[in-house]
Amino acid sequence: SAAVRDRLRIAIQKSGRLADPARQLLAACGLSWRESRDRLFCYGETLPVDLLLVRDDDIPGLIADGVCDLGVVGRNVLLEQDGDRRGNGRAPAFREWRALGFGGCRLAIAVPDAWQWQGPQDLAGKRIATSYPALLTQWLAQQGVDAQVVLLSGSVEIAPRLGQAEAICDLVSSGATLSANQLKAVQTLVESEAVLAGPVDRFDDVRGELADLLLRRLDGALRVRN
Ligand code: PRT
Ligand code: ZN
């Protein structure tokens, strides 16, 4: 990460929910690239700002390692990985620079429809399936609730039917997935959207000026949209 670079490198999702809106927003900032969708790298033409196309989960780590300067990622992913670092006694290595106004969803506790929810204390002694163990663990501690966190990497919403857990903690947008699985959201842990993520500190080389320019254009583009 000590390498001084004179180009800015932004990591975005290669494919998935945030991929197209991220490219569209950056294009609205006047950026263009030598297009090569399926390749790893897009070389910036109008400005020395390149794109790296990756899995969203890799973005915070790429920023922490200095492989990328900035990234477009869900706040849910950023906060989870930050929480994981904190839980392991590591210093913060990335933070949210801007909220981007797309990819909105919430990280919520959901329980079977028939559960007459009274509050977080209902979860005491229960198993909760999630892909967000750090955020769930933090929240349970804040609530003073002792529950078991069951880590699943996907298909969290079927865990109650499979008998793996009594409740889940997962992302919700329309709520259709929850209803299809006879679940209901009862508590929001995080309101999320796509964010521009960057390092904790400013860049102290030419990337700082590039980042300032990009942020000015981004703020302009976001004002026009909202
Ligand atoms: O391949 P890669 O690892 O990059 O992609 P991914 O599959 O991990 O991520 P992807 O593309 O599914 O999501 C990227 C980001 O989009 C997430 O980290 C969130 O910040 C954001 N986002 C917004 C969502 C949703 N909305 C969402 N609805 N991510 C996931 N979902 C899930 C939800 O959990 C449910 O299972 O989509 C399903 C449909 O949701 P409902 O509520 O509309 O039924
Ligand atoms: Zn992912």
Task: Give your account of this protein's structure.
With 226 residues, the protein is an alpha/beta fold. The chain has 2 domains: 8-103 and 193-225, D-Maltodextrin-Binding Protein, domain 2 (3-Layer(aba) Sandwich), CATH 3.40.190; 105-191, D-Maltodextrin-Binding Protein, domain 2. Helix content is 31%, strand content 29%. The protein contains 7 helices and 12 strands. It has helices spanning 19-28, 59-64, 75-87, 133-143, 159-162, 176-180, 206-225; strands at 8-13, 33-34, 41-44, 49-54, 70-74, 95-99, 105-112, 127-130, 148-151, 167-172, 183-192, 194-198. Strands 2-3-4-1-5-12-6 form a 7-stranded mixed beta sheet, with helices on both faces. A 5-stranded mixed beta sheet has the order 9-8-10-7-11. The two termini are 36 Å apart. Phosphoribosyl ATP is lined by residues 13, 16-18, 55-57, 74, 76-77, 103, 105, 170-177, 192. Phosphoribosyl ATP (PRT) binds at residues 13, 16-18, 55-57, 74, 76-77, 103, 105, 170-177, 192.
Secondary structure elements and their pairing?
Elements: E1 8-13, H1 19-28, E2 33-34, E3 41-44, E4 49-54, H2 59-64, E5 70-74, H3 75-87, E6 95-99, E7 105-112, E8 127-130, H4 133-143, E9 148-151, H5 159-162, E10 167-172, H6 176-180, E11 183-192, E12 194-198, H7 206-225
Parallel strand pairs: 1-4, 1-5, 8-9, 8-10
Antiparallel strand pairs: 2-3, 3-4, 5-12, 6-12, 7-10, 7-11
The chain binds phosphoribosyl ATP and zinc ion (ZN).
